[in-house]
């Protein structure tokens, strides 16, 4: 597959998985789990929680895919271009911590990696949205799995059915209905995706705390480290915790082109 085809497949998979999770939760599991509940508050809270997590995922996916991580680079060197390097592919001067993405065909400010599920590079201006996206995807996957578990406990289905090969055998032997089997397949896929998202979120928080990118962390580059508060502010803005509730653009520290080194920071 070409990179463009992989992007199309990744975006389609994101929308299919997230949409199918919401449909299964709202139209299959929640009605079944709340059918004997008289409390309207409980029903509303469960529906709102699903809607909130889904909305956060969609909004941060959109911002992550639309918020460009790059800026126009300079064609000449100057006093404020110390440490910049020439990119032969862009034929422009690129600032420190920027790297050329052959898929996007441009130099990305503080490039983290290329994400096929958002069809964009993750860099200085959209890393916050990527981190919050994988956070809510992890949360959504965990919540979905808990609903599936509650659903199966209430139906008295055997626990062995959660093992996909066993579920496949039971389905082919007409021991499981089609809808139940598809829900079990979905459960296993969501479990894998949720685990990957949790790992991504944990790793991203580690590199943000350290003031690094994944490239710098794997190569032991520490020259841009600052104190943890400054590192988080650089990515999320001054009110960085609010980003996890409201997907808005709080002003970041810096412009993504000029960076203080650890030596400069210690000297201040």
From TrEMBL:
It is an enzyme of class 2 (transferase). It catalyses: L-cysteinyl-[protein] + hexadecanoyl-CoA = S-hexadecanoyl-L-cysteinyl-[protein] + CoA. The DHHC domain is required for palmitoyltransferase activity. It is found in: Membrane. GO terms for cellular component: membrane. It is a multi-pass membrane protein. This is Palmitoyltransferase. Pfam families: DHHC. One of its GO terms (molecular function) is protein-cysteine S-palmitoyltransferase activity. Keywords: Acyltransferase, Membrane, Transferase, Transmembrane, Transmembrane helix. Belongs to the DHHC palmitoyltransferase family. PROSITE patterns: DHHC. The keyword Transcription regulation does not apply. InterPro entries: Palmitoyltrfase_DHHC (IPR001594), PFA4/ZDH16/20/ERF2-like (IPR039859). Coiled coil: none annotated. Residues 85-218 form the Palmitoyltransferase DHHC domain. Its EC number is 2.3.1.225. The lineage of its organism: Eukaryota, Metazoa, Spiralia, Lophotrochozoa, Annelida. The chain crosses the membrane at residues 12-29, 41-63, 129-153, 181-203.
């Amino acid at each position: 597959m070409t990179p463009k085809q992989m992007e199309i497949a990744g975006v389609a998979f994101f929308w299919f998985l997230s949409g199918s999770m919401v449909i299964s939760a709202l139209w299959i599991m929640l009605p079944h789990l709340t059918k004997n509940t008289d409390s309207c508050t409980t029903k509303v809270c469960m529906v709102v929680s699903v809607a909130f997590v889904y909305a956060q995922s969609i909004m941060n996916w959109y911002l992550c895919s639309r918020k460009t991580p790059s800026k126009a680079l300079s064609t000449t060197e100057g006093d404020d271009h110390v440490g910049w390097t020439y990119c032969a592919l862009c034929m422009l001067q690129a600032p420190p911590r920027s790297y050329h993405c052959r898929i996007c065909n441009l130099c990305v400010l503080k490039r983290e990696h290329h994400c096929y599920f958002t069809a964009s590079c993750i860099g200085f201006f959209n890393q916050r949205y990527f981190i919050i996206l994988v956070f809510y995807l992890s949360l959504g996957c965990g919540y979905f799995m808990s609903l599936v578990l509650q659903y199966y406990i209430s139906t008295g289905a055997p626990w062995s059915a959660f093992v996909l090969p066993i579920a496949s055998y039971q389905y082919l032997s007409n021991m499981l209905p089609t809808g139940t089997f598809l829900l079990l397949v979905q459960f296993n896929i969501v479990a894998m995706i949720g685990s990957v998202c949790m790992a991504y979120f944990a790793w991203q928080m580690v590199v943000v705390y350290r003031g690094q990118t994944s490239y710098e962390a794997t190569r032991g580059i520490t020259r841009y480290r600052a104190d943890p508060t400054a590192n988080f502010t650089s990515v999320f803005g001054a009110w960085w915790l609010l980003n996890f509730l409201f997907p808005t653009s709080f002003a970041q520290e810096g412009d993504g082109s000029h960076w203080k080194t650890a030596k400069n920071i210690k000297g201040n």
